Amino acid sequence: MHSLGAVPLNRSLFEYIRRNSRISIAAEKLKSPAEEGIVKKILALAAAVSLYCAIAAARIPIGTLAGTVVDSHGRPVADAVVMAQTSDGLKPYGTHTDANGRFEITRLETGQYDLRASCHGALSDWDRRIMVRSNRTTSVLLRLPSKKVQ
What stretches of the chain show up as alpha helix (H) in DSSP? Predict the structure, then answer.
């Protein structure tokens, strides 16, 4: 795979892609200048969309929430449901704990989140306003009560 970051200025994007990728095989089989024009437009649009997505993704700072769900005796709880949402309640996320009671929610936009765990009818209190920071993992311990919530 070739990077488009080093495209020489004296060469068109189409020519660069044509010479440095597998698209060149398909481009060689074009029958008319009209077909080549369509391919040029498609390649230019694909390059623009890819560039836009890369820039947009780079601007959104993201982090990770990770932790463990334990019971009232401090033992890890497997297969617990962990619910997270932005503190304004608009973006919900969810996952399950592994056999060791651990969970991880990745690619969260930075900001404040509320977390809660549940398993077999037991529901933890909300752990509120947990701060997710850019390129960091925030660790959390969620404790399930011994009694089921009615």
Answer: 13-20, 23-28, 33-59
In one letter, which amino acid is 61? P
- 93-125 residue pLDDT tens: 999 999 999 999 999 999 999 999 999 999 999
- Comparing CA positions, the residue from 106, 126, 128, 108 lying closest to residue 118 is 126
pTM beyond cutoff 0.70: no
Instruction: Could you list the beta-strand ranges (E) of the chain.
Output: 62-70, 81-86, 92-96, 102-109, 111-119, 122-123, 127-132, 137-143
Helical packing angle, 13-20 and 33-59, nearest 10°: 90
d(CA 101, CA 98) in angstroms, rounded, equals 5
Q: Assess contact for 78 and 101: CB atoms under 8 A.
A: yes
User: CA distances (Å), 87 to each of 84, 107, 116, 131, in order?
Assistant: 9, 16, 12, 10
Which pLDDT belongs to residue 54? 62
User: What is the radius of gyration, based on Cα positions, of the chain?
Assistant: 25
Query: pLDDT of 20-39, one tens digit each?
Result: 655 545 555 556 677 677 77
